[in-house]
Amino acid sequence: MNSAEYALQTVLLVAQRGSISVTELALALDVAPSTAHRVLANCRRSGFVRQDVRGGPYVPGPVLHEISLLASRPVRLRDAVDEVVHELHEETGETIGVMILEGRNARTVQSVAGAPPRAIGPRLGRVFPADLVAGGKAMLAVERPERLLRRFPDRKLSVAADGTRRSWRDFERELHIIRHRGWAYAIGDTDPRISAIAAPLVLASGDPVAAITVVMPRGRLSTRSEVEQMAGPLLQAAARAQSRLRGGEAHRLSPESASR
Predict the structure, then answer these.
(1) What is the mean pLDDT of residues 171-198?
(2) Rounded to an integer, what distance in angstroms lies between the CA atom of residue 35 and that of residue 22?
(3) Are residue 43 and residue 85 in the same domain, yes or no?
(4) Burial of residue 103, with CB atoms counted within 10 A of its CB: 0-12 exposed, 13-18 middle, 19 or more buried
(5) Is 136 helix (H, G, I), strand (E, B) or coil?
(6) What does 174-223 look like in DSSP terms, one character per residue?
(7) 110: which DSSP letter?
(8) How many domains are contained in the chain?
(9) CB 174 within 8 A of CB 167
(10) Which residues does the annotated region (Disordered) include (predicted)?
């Protein structure tokens, strides 16, 4: 068996038995204890197993638990966010969207247009550079470093609407701020008339699955106070959608407690 097959067999054994030790895994896979330990360490880093006590057995981790939830309760992304998106739309009157990552880009997979005279046109299906739009940056901020670099192997960023291009170092600084704050914003970066603010939806593994965005005319979302005022309802909506996506009960978070 190769390393991937060892890992899959290990995850299956942990799921079946509920826990497994290094010695037990070595016997089950017919490998040396050192190999079994390495396989378990890799599974632990990926979130498939966890070890509560040093030297103790390995038990199902958050990712394995999440897979079981998705298998037993088929909660699709649209099912998890649809009601939340409409609630946020009713609360704010603004255009609300859901974005997912596609390589270096972010695609809008769900959109509810704002009420006139606030309306921003339908954005369903539109694709934007992920490093320029709020939804893309919200997701990139919580990506694992190695996955982020796979998306941008050349570390070359997109050119904004005003013709500027940021350095990779400046971009990393921005992602660090977004990660700890819990939300991202973009003011005129893809269209000088439009601003947006977004919060990521993150699985228990820590991987981003989508982002909820609020899109507004730039004239009403450009100052710090305007952005921060919209962050509260957005974070509450993201918390509800994320909880539903994970199969739990919805709960409310303040902007401070929701920051990452």
Answers:
(1) 95
(2) 9
(3) no
(4) exposed
(5) helix
(6) HHHHHHHHS-EEEESSS-TTEEEEEEEEE-TTS-EEEEEEEEEEGGGS-S
(7) E
(8) 2
(9) no
(10) 239-260
pLDDT tens digit sequence for 3-59: 889 999 999 999 888 899 999 999 999 999 999 999 999 999 888 899 988 889 999
- Over residues 115-143, the mean pLDDT reads 85
Q: Rounded to 5 degrees, what angle do the CA atoms 44, 46, 99 make?
A: 150
pLDDT of 156: 94
- DSSP 3-state assignment of 159? coil
Separation of alpha carbons 11 and 43, rounded Å: 8
Cα of first residue to Cα of last residue in the chain, in angstroms, is 39
Q: Which residues pair with 185 in a beta bridge?
A: 197
pLDDT band, very low/low/confident/very high, at 257 (cuts 50, 70, 90): very low
Structural domain span for residue 63: 3-72
